[in-house]
Every structure is written in C-alpha cells, then in structure tokens.
Amino acid sequence: MAAFTIAAGTGNWFSALALGVTLLKCLLIPTYHSTDFEVHRNWLAITHSLPISQWYYEATSEWTLDYPPFFAWFEYILSHVAKYFDQEMLNVRNLNYSSSRTLLFQRFSVIFMDVLFVYAVHECCKCIDGKKVGKELTEKPKFILSVLLMWNFGLLIVDHIHFQYNGFLFGLMLLSIARLFQKRHMEGAFFFAVLLHFKHIYLYVAPAYGVYLLRSYCFTANKPDGSVRWNSFSFVRVISLGLVVFLVSALSLGPFLALNQLPQVFSRLFPFKRGLCHAYWAPNFWALYNALDKVLSVIGPRGFLRCLTLCALSSFMFGWHVHEKAILLAILPMSLLSVQKAGDASIFLILTTTGHYSLFPLLFTAPELPIKILLMLLFTIYSISSLKTLFRWSFTLVAQAGVQWRDLSSPHPPPTGFKQFSCLCLPSYWDYRHAPPCPANFCLFVCFWRRSFILVA
Amino acid sequence: MEKWYLMTIVVLIGLTVRWTVSLNSYSGAGKPPMFGDYEAQRHWQEITFNLPVKQWYFNSSDNNLQYWGLDYPPLTAYHSLLCAYVAKFINPDWIALHTSRGYESQAHKLFMRTTVLIADLLIYIPAVVLYCCSLKDISTKKKIANVLCILLYPGLILIDYGHFQYNSVSLGFALWGVLGVSCDWDLLGSLAFCLAINYKQMELYHSLPFFCFLLGKCFKKGLKGKGFVLLVKLACTVVASFVLCWLPFFTEREQTLQVLRRLFPVDRGLFEDKVANIWCSFNVFLKIRDILPRHIQLIMSFCFTFLSLLPACIRLTLQPSSKGFRLTLVSCALSFFLFSFQVHEKSILLVSLPVCLVLSEIPFMSTWFLLVSTFSLLPLLLKDELLMPSVVTTMAFFIACVTSFSIFEKTSEEELQLKSFSISVRKYLPCFTFLSRMIQYLFLISVITMVLLTLMTVTLDPPQKLPDLFSVLVCFVSCLNFLFFLVYFNIIIMWDSKSGRNQKKIS
C-alpha cells in the first residue's frame, strides 16, 4: 500500500496530465479519419512490401511517398509491428483498406509515438523557471505550460481525429528547442537536422535555427554591451555543426544517392516544377530578411524562439500550398513564450484562439461537431483563465491593447504604461543593448506582424 | 484560478467524455429481429406519437407488447412523445408506424445520442454541480474535484451513452430530491423524487429512506404542531404529483391496473439473465429458481430485503440527519439490489448514485465500490462491444479519484469511519487492531481478481460445457464484493449514530 501511495500520490501531476490526455486520445479512436489515414497505410504497404529502390517510384495509389527518407524508415519499422495486427493492410493493392484492426493499429501508433512529445514537454518545463515557490499547483508556469502543450486542441484534433503523426515531430522540435535553452547546442542542432529529414516542412523555421546557432554558438563571446565580438568566431564549432548536419543528411539521403534516385526523391518532396524555386523561396526570403535584420541582435534562446515563431508565421502567410495545420508550427513554440511574459501571453491567446478556430473546417462530419466545439471551449477557457491568473491581468488593460493596435502604423511611440501588453513592445524584449533599428525596418516589421494577425483571424 | 472557470472546465471534460463514448456502438446494433434498448426507445417514440394515450400500455394489432412494450411509468412515455415530435420535424421515417421497425442510420443515431446528451445536460449535470457546491466543510478545490469524479463515473456514462438508456433523467430527479430534502426544501425535494419514481419505477429502491427521513423530520418537529402540518403538506405534494403524471390513466380502473401490471411483472421470476445478486449467485449451487414455487420466491425475497434494510431505516427515522440519509440511501438500494425480485444488472446505478454522494466523506471505500459496480456490468458491456471505452473511462475515473482525494492515504480506521465500531469490538477482542490493514488487503485482492477476470473474459473462450462461465464468475465475484459493502455501510450507519449520541452526552 505504501508503494501504491508513492506511485499514485502527491506531486505527480505531470504523469496524471499525460495519462489523462492519453486516455482522451484512446476515446477518440472511433472518430472520423481523413484520407491521411489511407496515405499512411499506403506508406506502410510500400515500405514493407517493396525494396528501397521502389519506394519513391511506386505510384499504384495516388498517395505517393512524399516525405523524406527518415519518415519512410519509420513507416518501415511500424510495418513490422503492423503485420501482427492485420497482414492485409500491408498489401499495396489494398487501396482504402481500413479494417477495425488496421484502425486500431494506426491510432495506437500515433498515441504511442506521442511519448516523445510528452518527454519533450517534460524537458521544456525544466527550462521554465517557476518564479514564486509556494504558489498553488495550478498557477505554476510549469503546470500551465504542460497543459497548453499536452492538451493542445489543434494537435489533438489533427493527430487523433484527422490522423497525422505531428505529435512526435513536434516533440523532436520542442526537444531541440529545450536543448538550445539548456545551452546544449550540438544536441539541439542534431535533433533539428533529424527532424528535417522526417518532415521537410520544418525547413520554414530552419533560418531561425541557422541564425541563432551562428550567433550564439559560433561566436563564442560578446562585447560588454551585448553585441557580437567578431574575432570570437570559432571555426571548430561551425565545422562540427556542419558535420552533424552532413552526417544526418548522409544517413538519410545516402542510400538514394547511391541508387542515383536523388532527383526523383526531390521531385516527390518538392512537387512543383518551375514554380518551386520562385514561390518556395518567398517565405524563406521574408523570414530570412527579418531574421537577417536581427542577426546581430538575436541574443538568448527567448529571442531565438521569437524568431522561430516569426519564421513559422511568415511561412504560414506566404508559403506555397500551406495547410491550415501549419499554424501549429507557430502555436506550439509560442506556448513556451506565453508562460513567461504577459505580453507574449496576450499575443499567444489571440493566435491560438484564431488559429485553432481556423482548424474547424478540417472536421466536417456531424458526429465530430460536438467534440471539436467542446475541446475548443475547454482549451480556450483554460488558456485564458490560467494565463490571466498567472499574470493577474484585468480585462480593461487587454481591451486597451486591442484599441491601441490600430494605431500601430503611427510613428509615435506607445504610452509608457502600456508597454507591457502591446505587440509593439516586442522589440523592447529583444534585449539588445545598441541603437534601435532604423525606422523603415521597424515599420515594415510592425506592419508585417499586424497584417499577419488580421489575415490569420 | 477562479471557481467558475474550473467548474466550467470540469463540466466540459465530463461532456467530452460522454460524447466520445457515444460514438461507439449501442445495444442491439445490427441484430434483428429484436435489436436492443436503443430500438426499444425508438419504438416507444413511434407508439406514443402515433397511438392515442389509451392504447399505449395495451396489446393491440398496432401495439404488440411482445416487441418492446412500454414498461416504464408515464413520464417516460411523455418524454418519448416529446422526442418523437422533434424526430417528426427532422425525419418522419424514424417514427412511422410499423415501417420504422428496426430503423438504423447514422443520422438517427446522432439524433438519439443528442436526446440523451440534452436530457443529461438539463437534469443530471446541474444537480451534480449544485450538490457539490452545497457540501459543507470542504474547500472549493475539493468540491470541483468531487464534481469531476462524479461526472466521470463510468457506469452511468457507459449505460446511458453506450448501451443507450435515459438513466440520467431518473437519477437526476432523484438527486434533485436529495438536494431539496437535505437543504430543508422538503416539498420541492419530494416533488422531484416523485418525478423520478414516475420516470422509472426502479427509483422505489430509494423511496424508503426518503420516507423515513421525512417522517423523522416530522417527528422531530413534533407531531402535534409543525410536524403534522409538514406531514400533511408532504402527503398532498406526493398525491398531487402522482395524480398529475397519471392523469390520463386514472380515467378507468382497467387502465391503471394494466399500467401497474406492465411496471411490476411478477410473473417473470426471481431473476432474469445474469445479475450480481444473491439469488443468481445462490442459483449456481442450488437451483432455487426451479425448486421453489413462484409465491414462495416472492415472499422470501420480500422478507430478506426488508430484514436487511430495517435497522438503517429505523435509525434514520429516529435520528434524521443529512449524512445518515445518504448512507441509508446506499444501504437500502444495495439491499434491494441484492435481495429483491426481478433485478436487472443496470439497477446497480441506483446504488452508485448515493455512493457518489458520499465520495467526499469516504473516498477510499466509495471509489472501490464504484469500480466494482462498473466491473459488474462487464458482460453487458462486452455484448455491446464497449470494451475500449469501459477500460478507458474506468482508468480515467480511477486516476481522477486518486489525484483528487489521495484515497490511498485515507485508509486509517478514523478515515474509514470505523473507529467507534473497532473500539466496541476491542472491548471483547483486544487484539482486533488489524481492521485497516485487512481492508487494504481485501481491496488489493478485489482489484487483482477484477483485472484477471476481465482479461480472461476478453482473451479466453469459455469451455464447451459451461458457456456462461465467465459471466457467472463476474456476477459471483461482484456479489461477494457487494455483500461486503452491505455489511460495511450498515456498520457505519449503526455505529456512527451511536458515537453521535455519545458525543451529545459528553457535551
């Protein structure tokens, strides 16, 4: 009984939260699933029954393999477990095969892979400092962050109803962010490189990583005023980072290079012929522009996180063939910022509410309507009430923030008492100690933020 | 965090779990010719909408009582009529006379599940929230945790949203009754309880404690003055509510008698199918159902039932208290479940509701009981293909109770309310100090047995000669657990009042 008490007892709120959300995911097993279910079943079949040389050429089904090789290997490993559930799902000719055992296996595989996401959230919580010790459990930033990440509405409905494997991929991304926060830059770079070879959509945020690693890892020292010390550039570090990325890419693309299939692989991954280079670069150009503008001023992991969110948002706004699910790429990292500063929390609330609402058309069947409404209400009410309690706001100040946003294009600085809440103050949080950037850049940046929120909403 | 935000979140979690369970199969899905309870409810909508009131309970060419004839009191019929009007508006094919028999479609399932959700939302959930808010001597956080645990109770969710029934209506009305009577709104409380009885006659299991508690209150106020006035008012309320519900059936004597015959089918025998009750378990060793004649069975079950519940009821009449009332509800309902005539396994919900009400006072034993009650429904749930939701909701409930009430830290004699009992026993047996540890071991054994039996039922096939082996084992084990709980609850009722009186003497 004593062992029971220790195992089940006080303070293990994290396990209770993780277990609770896992049980909710199990309850979502019989819900509607989209064509993505058939996509992944087809990939299980392709990787299991065909040799590697055929993986990126197989086209029996319309859902051809268009993720990088690591994901293909992942499906290959899964297929070896799948054969104990239902052998028929691994037949490439069985299009739209969805027996109850297939459904059970696929759903359980998503739920199981979320273990990586839970671990990543655990690591992220370690990076959050719980300010005043002795506060109630439900008001601690760690608790709120765990709920905002593990019980994220968007992730729940996209992964466990619509059907995708975003959970563990975002787990890899959050893990790399956590490692960067913990100053374990090589591991952070490694995890991100691995992530890129699982799903190449994360290329959108690669500039943020590149710039941050360059600034914080490759330049080893700062001047007293915080700006970069140019002569502290470490070639060893650059080379070791490059080596990590190179080795990961070699592991992933190596076999296909040997088989001379690289062009085919790339044509599957980036399925646009001439439009690709022009359009696909556009968000990166913007992100790159914004990021480069701040390359000298990005200091600290929090600045990196802001840059990452900015890249994700700009890619969402201007990217080619962007799915509504891509809003999660901005929402999840922003959660980490929201529990630390009141201003970030207010932006997070608007982003998350509108972003999640924009996911509604993803589930269009009648039985799932109450589920998405209930889960959305649950998440929205929780996030507003918990963040409000954490920062002890009054709604009047937030309303002021809303009114002030329309004056963003004016060159006048915001009133002092207001600095805490308006998004205008983002630059003030970037913590740079030298002169503010020139007004032209500033206005462009601000207009970009303003437009992105209006367009997203 | 502010109280109302937390409460809203908890209610939303309850609703989410309910709706996700409702996505699963229902009783009798795709199983002609009789189907199941789902078809029964649809059929009642058809009957009440298309036939005049006088024909609802009678056998006729339009109304074949053998095919799910109405066997609940009039309020169920009126509820079905209301649902039928909505169904007519959406798709008349669902309730067309004769031609809609066995109608099954996704849209119809959605409609039926929505009616359950709306009834739950309007009646049961507000009652639970208000009840927990009215609890005394506990913090706001504990009240909200209490709401979460009660809303996550798997038995009610699986039967109402899985198997398909409207238990939340009758249990909700009964809960309003408990609330009213505990807060001294006796007339409203008894009105609500009468509505509950008129919805499902099984609520009569709860009627004796209500009667004894209100009688006790009248005695306390003095039978010569205010007490008598209260008694008269209560009698009038009860009679008026019954008359109101049964009005269309009081026009002719034959109508009333026929309804009563449908509600209390004494011809059907001591028990039907497998149920976790004494008679069914005894039947394993000695086939009493076949040996004894029908009227002897009736008398025997009557005697056993009333003998087992009499002490608690007398105690309640002499010393009416809110806590005693709730505990007597438990023990009375449990006595009826174990010893009464024609008990269905779903009637365990009538015991579970009062146990949910004492969850905050005796968390360990209540959680244990509620787990056993869900386990006793296993054969029924497996028939309806509800294994996954039942396992998941049971685990969710268990985790909620463990984290909210830290039940494993509350296993001392004091916490289990057995202190006065063990002190009395120690006068004769000085070595009786192991009560708490014994109960913990029993809990462990019980849980292990339940888990093993569940695994066996799901994975193994029963032997050829004994095809019902696992169902009978489940019933037998549950029955043993229930007997233990009957003894336990009776002990704490009897010894609790004693200590109350002693304390009064001291002070």
From TrEMBL, chain B:
<comment type="similarity">
    <text>Belongs to the ALG6/ALG8 glucosyltransferase family.</text>
</comment>
<protein>
    <recommendedName>
        <fullName>Alpha-1,3-glucosyltransferase</fullName>
        <ecNumber>2.4.1.-</ecNumber>
    </recommendedName>
</protein>
<keyword id="KW-0256">Endoplasmic reticulum</keyword>
<keyword id="KW-1133">Transmembrane helix</keyword>
<comment type="pathway">
    <text>Protein modification; protein glycosylation.</text>
</comment>
<feature type="transmembrane region" description="Helical">
    <location>
        <begin position="144"/>
        <end position="161"/>
    </location>
</feature>
<comment type="function">
    <text>Dolichyl pyrophosphate Man9GlcNAc2 alpha-1,3-glucosyltransferase that operates in the biosynthetic pathway of dolichol-linked oligosaccharides, the glycan precursors employed in protein asparagine (N)-glycosylation. The assembly of dolichol-linked oligosaccharides begins on the cytosolic side of the endoplasmic reticulum membrane and finishes in its lumen. The sequential addition of sugars to dolichol pyrophosphate produces dolichol-linked oligosaccharides containing fourteen sugars, including two GlcNAcs, nine mannoses and three glucoses.</text>
</comment>
<dbReference type="InterPro" id="IPR004856">
    <property type="entry name" value="Glyco_trans_ALG6/ALG8"/>
</dbReference>
<keyword id="KW-0472">Membrane</keyword>
<feature type="transmembrane region" description="Helical">
    <location>
        <begin position="386"/>
        <end position="408"/>
    </location>
</feature>
<keyword id="KW-0732">Signal</keyword>
<keyword id="KW-0808">Transferase</keyword>
<feature type="transmembrane region" description="Helical">
    <location>
        <begin position="173"/>
        <end position="197"/>
    </location>
</feature>
<dbReference type="GO" id="GO:0005789">
    <property type="term" value="C:endoplasmic reticulum membrane"/>
</dbReference>
<keyword id="KW-0812">Transmembrane</keyword>
<feature type="transmembrane region" description="Helical">
    <location>
        <begin position="348"/>
        <end position="371"/>
    </location>
</feature>
<feature type="signal peptide">
    <location>
        <begin position="1"/>
        <end position="22"/>
    </location>
</feature>
<feature type="transmembrane region" description="Helical">
    <location>
        <begin position="110"/>
        <end position="132"/>
    </location>
</feature>
<feature type="transmembrane region" description="Helical">
    <location>
        <begin position="429"/>
        <end position="457"/>
    </location>
</feature>
<feature type="transmembrane region" description="Helical">
    <location>
        <begin position="298"/>
        <end position="318"/>
    </location>
</feature>
<keyword id="KW-0328">Glycosyltransferase</keyword>
<dbReference type="GO" id="GO:0042281">
    <property type="term" value="F:dolichyl pyrophosphate Man9GlcNAc2 alpha-1,3-glucosyltransferase activity"/>
</dbReference>
<dbReference type="Pfam" id="PF03155">
    <property type="entry name" value="Alg6_Alg8"/>
</dbReference>
<feature type="transmembrane region" description="Helical">
    <location>
        <begin position="227"/>
        <end position="249"/>
    </location>
</feature>
<feature type="transmembrane region" description="Helical">
    <location>
        <begin position="469"/>
        <end position="495"/>
    </location>
</feature>
